[in-house]
Amino acid sequence: MINVLLITFLITLLYMSIANRLLTYLKVLAFQGVILFAVTFIQLHEFNTLNLILILLETIVFKSVAVPIFMAHVLKRNKITREAEPYVPYFVSLIITTLILVTTILLSGTIIDSGLDKMFFVVALSTIFFGLYIIASRRKIITHVMGYLVIENGVFVLSLAVGNEMPMLVNLGVMLDIFASVLILGIFLNKIGDVFKNIDVEELSNLKDY
Amino acid sequence: MVNYVLTSLFIVLQWGFTVYAYFHLNATVAEYFTFDSLGFLLLLVLSIISIPAIFHSHRYIDLHNEPPKSQSIYFSALIVLIAAIGLAYLANHIAVLWIFTEITTLAASALIYHHRNKLALEGTWKYVFICAISVAFIFIGILFLSLSLGKASSDNLSFQYLISRSTTLNPFWLKLAFLFIFTGFTVKAGLVPMFTAGVDAKDKAPGPTAALLSSVLMNMGVVGIFRTYSIIAYTPLQHWANIVIGISAVLSIFVATVYMIKVKNIKRMFAYSSIEHMGLVMLAISIGGIGYYAAILHIVLHAFVKSSLFFQYNQIYRVYQDKSVNHIGNYFKYNPTGAIVVLLGFISATAIPPSGLFVSEFLIFRALFEGHQIFILIAVLLLLTIIIWAFAKNILKVLFTPIPNFDESQVPVIKPWESYTQLALIILSIYLGLTPPDFFVQLIKESVMFLS
Fold it and tell me: Tell me, what's the ipTM?
């Protein structure tokens, strides 16, 4: 069951790589939150109940409801155009994403460690690299933030892989999620929308050496 | 007035804590903090630098005549930053170190955004975003580190436990963990690959804050790398880790050279010079031997010199209202004491004798020579020569060349006493470099004892 969920997670990445509209990205992020909710529920069976409820709430309330709604609000308020405007064609994005997946699968083949579920490793690592790719290949600041949220989802998957041995690390991962998201989204996306009207990365090139 | 009382109170507390740490060396408090030699030494440096930092912050805030809200945010963020850096030095558990790294990001971003304008926002956004990614990277590294412990392990991720188990760690996970943690800390330490955000941050942050960012905060990044490295130093992977660090170090020096040639903004020039120095420190660590000693000595002395230059920068800005070298000149005429600070700081930052940094750089080169890395030594020396030329070209213009059409009637009078703290820092660095007291040498030796 976990494997089915994790493979669905990978498919959402492929879908995201060819998505055109920003709202689609938000929907995919929300859906990823739901998948993570299910995976957490099945995987972390050794947790005490209160802690587990806290983590589940983080996935469902924070990842799949609060953040997408807030980002949609930001999109609307700053009148950001609906397209993602990547630097590269979607077809190339699809190929690169596939290459990321293949590379991580090949890399996981070299691991000699019976202790780890390789599925988690592949999904986590490819999600992290995919997030970095989104940041590098999209033009808008808000897509950078979405790429960062994808990276956080990848980190969360990875922390689930070791969750039963090291419950502390899962909690720290949740802390990273909330802390960094609030810092980035809450304070700066608001400000940046007010100051830079058309929030493209090209706008952010005024700091120079001379 | 309240600000003065509260910040003085903080300095007293900070020094009280440092003195307490001195009398409890190698003791562990609150389970997660150990007063080991490296942590204590850097805490002492932090406490010394925090006094002029707060003094110059008061000067800065008073001259700008800012509203109370902006003042209170500034001082609280400054205090949180100093406290978080200090606790990060002392953390004996990698996750605790990580948490304090996050807190420094928060505090630093509030300080960088102090002026609330478009450029400050750009710098802050870049810093926050890159730091968020770097913090995620460090966390990934910690997860891999916990994987390398294997099943049936305890929840314990303290450095001491990891070092004691280092021979049984899974090498594959350890490699991945080191790569991710190293990449993550390069933002704070100012190294290739993720140095850019730090330079923008130092450009936009107020002078006293930029001084902290490019001295004690960079030391925090080095501490993170150093402690992780000391885990891997006990495994067969040490050679591989040395190569990784060495590549990053040489690239950092190279990148710093390239930017130093072109840079006209003197604040950014100081920031690039910091990148060069951190590159040298990493080079020393990757060579080993006497390099470890030189690395620790170098970060201590560099912290004093670079913070002094950044404090002085504010006075330059007050005279010229500009930070481009093209509009600054003949500084000796307008502020002789400050000009002496710039001159001494320049001599120290380029490691010309009799500065303290000359001693540590000389030790680094000796380590390179003894490690039979002649080609790297020649390459680095060439790059450093170019850096000295570029640095001197700009600084000598700032000090001596008059600029045409400069309106002298607007120049404020800057009293010499405002520069005394900066002079004290530079003289301290010369003193510690040339005639280090036994206590100081002992601390450095103890902090690298486990490596050689």
Answer: 0.92
